[in-house]
Amino acid sequence: MPRFHLIAPSGYCINQQAAQRGLQRLVAAGHRVDNIDVIPRRCQRFAGTDAQRLADVNGLAELTAPGIIVMPVRGGYGASRLLPDIDWSRLIARQRRDPLLICGHSDFTAIQCGLLALGGAITFSGPMLAGNFGAGELNAFTEEHFWRALRHAQFTLEWQGDGPRCEVEGTLWGGNLAMLVSLMGTPWMPEIDGGVLVLEDVNEQPFRVERMLLQLLNAGVLQRQSAVVLGSFSGGAANDYDAGYDLAAVRAFLRDRLAVPLIDGLDFGHEPRTVTLPLGARAVLKKDENGVRLTLSGHPVL
Prior knowledge:
Rossmann fold, Glucose Oxidase, domain 1, 302 residues, 2 domains
């Protein structure tokens, strides 16, 4: 039975009830859950002091038991403060020797990108304790796709999405759009050519989403990819001032300026319903009249 090891490198978990519900749900399913003391930990808006949260991350290099799933309690802001002091070399060496299955999203994207950029280490962009496993009702789609990604060395996702017909392959990478943009110009931004870049965000109005996408475009990141795949961008609906300018307009504007395929509609991100994606794995993306297929392989599994 897989063993979960909790970390809290980002924001304080304000919804303690959800975190406890997630913990109880995992235990009831027969899983051992370690390091639960991080759940109520708090310092200002963060889930502990910088030193405590850094110790969560650096301590992963010391874990030795097999079949460990590392999962943050939640996202929020805080991981960016830790990046200069993470012991990347030791953590990457641990991942090369016997990979931990590290899964999270949102603010945690910063650490996931660092592992990929500095050592090619694959992590999973997917559920976290409070927001997903601690939801009032655990989404069956999310749970099934979480275990599918962690248990199958190759798996395929299918969905209906807009975009041009294409068949491309490359390294899957990306995650939260705001965090990715915040890493530009730093050592923790992956330099990937010919990849399949997946992006999602939450609580960002259309103009903010466009501004961040244009930063990636103007920096040459988007056009170096084989394809760009958009997940969910909820919680930032257009308002009266936008006068019809919405996320559909953002996508259309970007497609006019981007030569590589832009595919949308993937259930991925800050929603109850989300897939789990192995960042750094090999991806084969096909879009035709039947829909979109994304086949992933080369990632560590249980």
